[in-house]
Design brief:
InterPro entries: DgoD-like (IPR034593), Enolase-like_C_sf (IPR036849), Enolase-like_N (IPR029017), Enolase_C-like (IPR029065), Mandelate_racemase_C (IPR013342), Mandelate_racemase_N_dom (IPR013341). The protein has 402 residues and is of the alpha/beta class. 37% of the residues lie in helices and 16% in strands. Strands 4, 7, 8, 9, 10, 11, 12, 13 and 14 form a 9-stranded mixed sheet that branches. The protein has a 4-stranded antiparallel sheet with strand order 3-2-1-15, with helices on one face. Helix 2 packs antiparallel against helix 3, helix 3 crosses helix 10 and helix 9 runs parallel beside helix 10. The longest helix has 22 residues. The two termini are 22 Å apart.
Length: 402
């Protein structure tokens, strides 16, 4: 079998277009089997860069055998030159091609990807409702008052979730985006009271028999994260996520030495090399690699295996489109050190849900792992027909090292 051409699409997320611009590819073969993959730079800035990078790196895969995923991955990583630096855009491109290759392998052999990864440890995945500061399902934020944070949390719990994640630092009391400098350094008493009031209202109203994950989005630094971490300890939180900029694991280590609540991080770490410092320094207890930007399924499985050596539990980060969700489910089913699956607020919205053929959603806070061959999902006809941009690559680049 041989890869003959690769289509690259910048998808239209409709009303979410300001926040989400998923970039996907479809890898075609001479046997008529195709595979889909996602480049995980879907939100904020960067989607056009991922769209261009995916076109460029696609040339490296043309003519190769999709059954040889390790060979293809190594070529993309080394021949691209920039892959050796572990940047987000290049790794998003690698991830999309790799994900599509695994999809092809599963379809060729007639099995789900989890079978190719060694088998299924579980058929159901405990799932948390993620980023409730923006809303949940049809209850749309952003939220300002402590009472609103408690209300949206209860709304998710009433749907059967027993774990939620909230960034209490993103939204100011007036509903605008809280400036980052307000949660860096030594927080003012006013800021600490805002955080305490919000977290306290969630516990006072919704109780203590569910897990509360506290998101920081690297808005905090080591100083402010320790102060916030003390509140996490007070309110018995499951984890504090991305408390510092992840490029320096010593800062997460500093937080961990002062705070009892475990640290979660990893969505902005690319490749196993960038994880090693966190593992060696015991700077992460819940690792969160993103299958659509950490190097694809080939690489995320290696990160999960390496994490097990350091007693680190895993959650495959999932905040992109439905293809990213599909890849996460396949990997999480096949690893022994799985902790919990992320279901992002944006993934509850119709404009994201229609981008794939199948609309998988959790039931009572639990995801079932699809048993269809490959990823178990594919980009929908609607998404392809309404794509904002489309490019096709059908030739190999010559003269590249690797």
């Amino acid at each position: 079998m041989e890869i003959t051409s690769i289509d690259v699409y910048l998808l239209d997320a409709g009303n979410q277009r300001e926040y989400r611009r998923p970039v996907v590819c479809r890898v075609h073969t001479d046997e008529g089997i195709f595979g889909d993959g996602e480049a995980g730079i879907p939100y904020g800035i960067g989607a056009p860069g991922a769209f261009g990078m995916l076109q460029d790196i696609a040339h490296l895969a043309i003519g190769m055998d999709p059954m040889e995923n390790e060979v293809i991955w190594s070529k993309m990583f080394k021949a691209s030159s920039w892959g050796l630096g572990g940047g987000g855009i290049i790794f998003a491109g690698i991830s999309a091609i790799d994900m599509a290759v695994w999809d092809i392998r599963g379809k060729k052999l007639g099995v789900p990807i989890y079978e190719l990864l060694g088998g299924k440890f579980r058929s159901e995945l405990r799932t948390y409702a993620s980023q409730l500061q923006f809303g949940w399902d049809d209850k749309i934020g952003p939220w300002k008052t402590p009472e609103e944070y408690a209300s949206v949390t209860q709304y998710a719990l009433d749907q059967g979730y027993d774990c939620v994640k909230i960034d209490f630092t993103q939204i100011a009391p007036d509903g605008t985006r809280l400036p980052k400098h307000d949660v860096e350094g030594i927080p003012t008493p006013k800021t600490m009271k805002m955080l305490d009031d919000r977290m306290g209202a969630v516990r006072a109203t919704c109780g203590w028999d569910f897990d509360l994950m506290v998101e920081c989005h690297s808005r905090t630094d080591a100083i402010s994260a320790i102060k916030l971490g003390q509140l996490c300890d007070k309110y018995s939180c499951m984890v504090i996520e991305e408390p510092t900029i992840p490029m320096n694991p010593l800062m997460d280590k500093a937080v961990h030495e002062k705070v009892k609540t475990p640290i979660a991080t990893g969505e902005r770490l690319y490749g196993r090399w960038n994880y090693l410092g966190h593992f060696l320094n015991n700077a992460v207890q819940l690792a969160q690699p993103d299958a659509s930007n950490c190097g694809g399924i080939t690489e995320v499985k290696k990160i999960c295996d390496m994490a097990e050596v350091f007693d680190v539990t895993m959650q495959v980060h999932c905040s992109g489109g439905p293809l990213s969700t599909a890849a996460s489910l396949q990997v999480e089913a096949a690893i022994p050190n799985f902790c919990i699956h992320e279901h992002h607020f944006r993934s509850t919205q119709p404009d994201i849900r229609r981008l794939c053929k199948y609309d998988y959603q959790p039931v009572d806070g639990v995801y079932e792992v699809p048993d269809l061959p490959g990823l178990g999902n594919e980009t929908s006809d609607w998404a392809i027909e309404h794509a904002l941009k489309h490019a096709q690559v059908n030739s190999a680049k010559r003269g590249l090292n690797g």
